[in-house]
Design goal:
By secondary structure, the protein is mainly α. The chain is built from twelve helices and no strands. The protein has a single domain, classed as Rhopdopsin 7-helix transmembrane proteins. It is found in: Cell membrane.
C-alpha cells in the first residue's frame, strides 16, 4: 500500500507542477517574442528616419537650385533629425526593450544631454522656418534683401544655443549620484523649476509661437490669394483685353478683312494693330497664369506648414504634458509603457518632417527623383 500511495502522490505532484512550469515557459517565450517584435519595429522606424533625413540633406547639397536660405534652414532641420536618429534612437531602443539601463553613468549623461539638445533643436528649427516664412510673405520686398545665408546661419546658431542651455542643467545635480549603481536613466522631475524651464523652453513657448506665426501666415496668404484677379474670378476674354488695350478702335474690322490684313506679307497698316493686340492678349494671359501659379504655390506652402504644425503638436504634446504632470502632481502615476509610447511618438516627428517636405514641395520632389536616378542636378 505504501509504495502505491507514494507513486500516486508523485504523479499528483507532477500533474500540479507541470502546468505552472509550462505557463512560465510560455510567458518567457511570449515576452521574448514581444521584445524581438518591438525591437524590429523601432529599428525600422530608426532606419527610415536616418534614410529620409539623409536623402533630404543629400538632395539639398547636390541640387544648386535648392541652395537658398529657406532650404538651408530645412537642411539644418534634417541634420538635427538625423542626429536624433543616429545618436539617440538606437540607445533608446535597447533601453525601451530591456527596461534597464546598463551603459553606466557617463553614457547616461551623454545620452540624456543629446536627447534633450537634439529634440529641442528640432522643435526650434520649426519655429525659425515658420518665422522665415512669415517674414517672406508679409514683408517680401524688404526681407528679400535681408534673406541671406548668413542670416539663416545666425538663426540656426541661436537655435543651438537655446537647445544646449536647456540640456545642460541636469548634468550638475546628476554628478552627486555618480557613485551609485544606475539602473535607470531619465531626467529627474523632482527639480520642478528645471522641469518648468525645460518644458516651456522646448515645447510650450515654441508651440504658442508656431500657432501665432501660422495664423498670421494663413491670413497673409489668403489675403494675397484673394487680391489676385484669378481668385476673384476676373477672367479676361480675348475681346475684353483687346477693347481695353491701345488701338482697340481698329478691332471693328470685319472678320474677312482682319484675316486678310493679318496675312499680308509686309504686315501693312491693316495687320499691324491686330498683331500688336494679339501680343498684348498673350502677355495678359501670361501675367494671369503667373498669378494663378503664385496663388497655388502660396496655398500649397501654407498647407504644408499647417501639416508640419499639426504633426508636431500630435507627436510632442503627449510627452510634454506627461512630463509636466509627473513633475507637478507627485501622487499621479503614469504607466512606464505609456510614457515609452509618448517618447517614441516624439521621436517619430523626426521621421515625419522630411517626409512632409519631400511629399509637398515640388522642387524637392523633382530633385529627389533625379537623385534616385543618380543624376546630378544643376
Amino acid at each position: 500500500m505504501d509504495p502505491d500511495n507514494s507513486s500516486e502522490d508523485l504523479l499528483y505532484d507532477n500533474a500540479t507542477e507541470s502546468p505552472v512550469e509550462a505557463r512560465s515557459s510560455w510567458d518567457e517565450t511570449a515576452l521574448l517574442g514581444l521584445q524581438i517584435s518591438l525591437s524590429a519595429v523601432l529599428a525600422v522606424v530608426t532606419l527610415a528616419t536616418v534614410l529620409s533625413n539623409a536623402f533630404v540633406i543629400t538632395t539639398i547639397f547636390l541640387t544648386r537650385k535648392l541652395h537658398t536660405p529657406a532650404n538651408f534652414l530645412i537642411g539644418s532641420l534634417a541634420v538635427t533629425d538625423l542626429l536624433v536618429s543616429i545618436l539617440v534612437m538606437p540607445i533608446s531602443i535597447v533601453y525601451t526593450v530591456s527596461k534597464t539601463w546598463s551603459f553606466g553613468q557617463i553614457m547616461c549623461d551623454i545620452w540624456l544631454s543629446s536627447d534633450i539638445t537634439f529634440c529641442t533643436a528640432s522643435i526650434l528649427h520649426l519655429c525659425v522656418i515658420a518665422l522665415d516664412r512669415y517674414w517672406a510673405i508679409t514683408d517680401a520686398l524688404e526681407y528679400s534683401k535681408r534673406r541671406t545665408m548668413r542670416r539663416a546661419g545666425v538663426m540656426i546658431g541661436v537655435v543651438w544655443v537655446i537647445s544646449i542651455s536647456i540640456s545642460m542643467p541636469p548634468l550638475f545635480w546628476r554628478q552627486a549620484k555618480a557613485h551609485e549603481e544606475l539602473t535607470d536613466c531619465m531626467v529627474n522631475t523632482d527639480q520642478i523649476s528645471y522641469t518648468l524651464y525645460s518644458t516651456f523652453g522646448a515645447f510650450y513657448v515654441p508651440t504658442v509661437l508656431l500657432v501665432i506665426l501660422y495664423g498670421r501666415i494663413y491670413v497673409a496668404a489668403r489675403s494675397r490669394i484673394f487680391k489676385s484677379p484669378a481668385s476673384r474670378g476676373k477672367r479676361f476674354t480675348t475681346a475684353q483685353l483687346i477693347q481695353n488695350s491701345a488701338g482697340s478702335s481698329l478691332c471693328s474690322i470685319n472678320s474677312s478683312t482682319a484675316q486678310e490684313g493679318s496675312l499680308q506679307p509686309g504686315g501693312g497698316s491693316g495687320g499691324s494693330p491686330i498683331f500688336v493686340n494679339n501680343v498684348k492678349v498673350k502677355l495678359a494671359d501670361s501675367v494671369l497664369e503667373r498669378k494663378r501659379l503664385c496663388a497655388a504655390r502660396e496655398r500649397k506652402a501654407t498647407k504644408t506648414l499647417g501639416i508640419i504644425l499639426g504633426a508636431f503638436i500630435v507627436c510632442w504634446l503627449p510627452f510634454f504634458v506627461g512630463t509636466l504632470v509627473m513633475a507637478i502632481c507627485k501622487d499621479c502615476w503614469f504607466d512606464p509603457v505609456l510614457f515609452d509610447v509618448f517618447t517614441w511618438l516624439g521621436y517619430l516627428n523626426s521621421l515625419i518632417n522630411p517626409v512632409i517636405y519631400t511629399a509637398f514641395n515640388d522642387e524637392f520632389k523633382q530633385a529627389f527623383h533625379k537623385l534616385i536616378k543618380f543624376k546630378r542636378c544643376y
